[in-house]
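hi support,

uploading two proteins for the ticket. first:
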Amino acid sequence: MISNTLKQGLVHLGAWLRGEVPEEGANNAALLRMAEARNGWFTADNVRAAMRAHGEALRAEVLADWERRMPAGLPVEAPRKVGMVLAGNLPMVGWNDVLCVLISGHLGQAKCATDDAVLIPAALDALRRWAPEDAARITLSDARMTDVDALIATGSGNTARHFDHYFKHVPRIIRGNRTSVAVLDGLETEADLKALGSDVFAHYGLGCRSTTKLFLPRGFDLDRLFGAWVEWGDLALNNKYANNYDYHKALWLLNRESLIENGFLLVKEDAGWTSPVGTLFVAYFDDEAEAWEAVRSNAEGLQCVGVRQGRKVDAPVPVIAFGKAQCPMPWDYADGRDTLAFLVGLS
């Protein structure tokens, strides 16, 4: 399904992303500085974590597993030009779209977000060492896309509507805003709660897979969460994070909102789904069925739902174990839309 040359190139690229090539990839200090200079949220630790997660997805055994899940017809016999408008809220967040176009055999024209215009070009440059012909099928351009045969674009709700209208004449995948939540049943262990902390705080909670709301059994002791999450306290040292925390604290206190804080997180009972940076919404239930009914009612706005390790739950959105939100496998396609199936259907 994946050509041997590309497969070997991707395996090498995985090692590069994980920092296993000396002074390169996740261990390239100059590259990390460039990424942070472009986007203050992209601290060195933040970028390393993202690059290593993408690198884990390019191990030979993971690619083999992905191949078993791929639709027939890859690579395509009649390549088309696929435009890609990539998001920039997390480091390399648009990489899976680029990867899918590479594997499909199509030609790609990618427009990186201004906030993430360093890492994906660097990854493609690295791939050229091992799979030059494949990497050459992806071009990077800031020019307006006027001659593409299909489009994959991610943005805010407003930009998604703009893309949908402007590119209505071509096949397209258009993604808007989504978020993720967690449902606790009260039986969580200390390890479960620590893992949940990663889903809440990794990448400062800026991703669509970041957990921004918890559904809790009524009477759940929030001190259990605060105790398990102490290791994330250094987030308050980041000026951008601290400014968000201070702003919402002042605003909510001014509005006489009831909130709980621990110095780096504001917790507020709220009907909303997407909490601002530095904050976390909670909702309490008497019967867990209430939480899952809420999830079903807002399924179109959710990327995934976290639960403690070992739970099996039937839900209309992907259910993942705590701690796995920011480590998706390559077949965990955004919005549940199979990108490769879409690309095969273009030929």
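and the second one:
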Amino acid sequence: MTTAHARVRDACAQMTAAGGPVPVNELAHGAGCTPRQLQRDFAEVLGVSPRQFGQAVRTDRTRAALRSRASVLDAVFDAGYGSVRAFYEETARRLGMTPSDYITGGAGQPLLWSVGESSVGDILAVASPRGLASVRIGGEAALVDEMTDEFPHADLVRDDAAMSDVMAALGLLADGRPAPELPVDVRGTAFQARVWDALREIPAGQTRTYTQVATSIGHPTSVRAVARACATNRVALAIPCHRVVRSDGSLAGYRWGLQVKSSLLQSERG
């Protein structure tokens, strides 16, 4: 008997091959189930609808098209959008900047950054006019390289003075002390956004299991999807994914290392 995971996997593969959304009736026919059943399967396994998954696939395709095409107009139609308006309404929000800026590698985007020392290692923070776009933990040289990878032509300006309040708040968070809530400017799926919002509701010094987080956002069976959302969190400390643990209380993987995760939790617990 075909399982929900198998049906979702096959439908996702079909949309990936198509480069974007596929009518749910067509997906359901291929999966051997009803459209309603497939909608339920997606909600249970991924926490998003088939169409939302397809839109994310098309966004990724658009990123690649924007990098390889000379004009935004060409990229719009190459990625399967029927009009420029539809492209801007859907994809521009997901890219986090205007398509014209993205096609030039973020050229002209005002991004301030700074690095500060903390008890868990160097912290590098990048901020757009809307909030924190990235917070990384590690060694300064490697972090700077990572920062410039995706947007090599962005207007990255190191401004320690302008970022001083942000860095001070991040330092407090690294030490397990209270700090002002920092605005963030990150992009993700609707499901990822719900997970990240839930993480920010976990009080300092406390933990939640992946199952508890999944339940809190109304998707109790989407535990693996919650784990993936935690792993894709780009703003360490500001979105405290270090407060999520396995069901037995043990520490699961953490992008910046289990030792850093353990240190953060110990500091918060005093």
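thanks. also noticed: The chain has three domains: 4-103, 110-174, 190-269.
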